[in-house]
Write a structure and sequence with these properties.
Number of domains: 2
Oligomer: single chain
Strand order of the largest sheet: 1-2
Strand content: under 5%
Number of helices: 8
Largest sheet: 2 strands, antiparallel
Number of strands: 2
Radius of gyration: 18 Å
Amino acid sequence: MYVGTRMRPVTDVIADAMDTDNPSVAFDFMDHLLNFALDCPREQRLYIRNVCNKIRSRHGRRQFLAAPTSEANQPATPQLNNNNVPACLRTREAEELWQKLREAGFIKPDSYALAEGVSDNQATYIAAVMASALKLQHKWKPFIELWNIVNMPQLAHNWQEVGRMPKDYKLIDKLLDE
């Protein structure tokens, strides 16, 4: 992970953030950790979030508000069947796109759930491209309902503002633009 202009292991950044007595330095490290977490799998993001909460507590700040997850701080995983999928994502054209995403490993086989290792940034990019391809009136709402990633608009704004696209965005474009 890059911190400033240097590449450093995440564990070193965590240790430095916990060891420093200067809150502004600790929060700078925490900012780097949170930016790094955007492209991580969900389990690693939860770990980094917990570490950032410890850093905040160490420096006298309250912890982040809880994410919409189950009590064990694991993502709530509703049973994904056709009843949980918004109607606009069940059209014949949408099913063709879903199948391409399944074959590429972004979506679990025989469901609409994200495959293991797909980051929220990647999911947001998939949602944006699918919404454009399907000409959806409400771009984010169906995907937020389906995957329970409530900050999709903010994630999209972040990668558009910073210019750092999600991992595999070219592959997603190629799959869904064909």
